[in-house]
Amino acid sequence: MGDWFRRTVIDTGRLPLFCFFAAMVVGFLFIRFSTRMIRAGVRWWPGNVTPGGLHIHHSVFGIGFMLLGGIVGFALSPELAAWRAIAAAVFGVGAALVLDEFAMILRLEDVYWSQEGRESVTAVFVACAVTGLLVLGILPENLIDLIHADDQGGIAGWAAGIALAALNLSLATVTVLKGKLWTGLIGLFFPILLYVGAVRLARPRAPWARWFYHRPGDRWARRLERAQRREKRFHEPVARLGDRLSSLIAGRPS
Q1: Per-residue model confidence as pLDDT tens digits over 92-112
Q2: Contact (Cβ atoms closer than 8 angstroms) between residue 131 and residue 17
Q3: What is the DSSP letter of 203?
Q4: Which of 144, 167, 176, 250 is 20 to 30 A from 188, alpha carbon to alpha carbon?
């Protein structure tokens, strides 16, 4: 395990990224544990920070941590790898605190424990999944195309790289508009998923379905019916499993 970590993380210069990832995961688990203890009214656990009656959300502290970690990380010399890793960890804690209240920031209202608050958990899961792939050295295909274009040089190389990157981004956009967020994001790293997600039916409540499947005509009605059947058969069981996992980690919405 030590040899793998050295080869995969340290020798490749990804130690700061790993520290960011680990700190974000630990920070999210800690803040969710803290809010659940506060919600349960546990007496020995410190309560909310309310100086002068003003409730300070933990995303405010997260912004401070991100500023501190980001500024220090940019200011440090590349040779100070250990200190840059510490700065990345501070940034990761801040990112966890901010993303944990993503739904509140998005809606500008306190939806932390509501069903809409699950968007915060999804945001953290997405950030952790993408960062985890980067820690393992798996780069988005778009970035690889541009790196190859830079290595080859010349107008033809850059044109091909930009065209492939534009194609993948377009397919990812279509996939996400069809209601397949995870397929679109992970597909940036494994493009075959984008081709599958872009050509298959949209989920019935996705923007793509609202734009196209509610048009008059039997063709669109059949597509909407197939999408609804597929939603009940495949997506809803997976969604219930995801909700149970989210409730286990982050608490059940009320």
Answers
A1: 999 999 999 999 999 999 899
A2: yes
A3: P
A4: 250
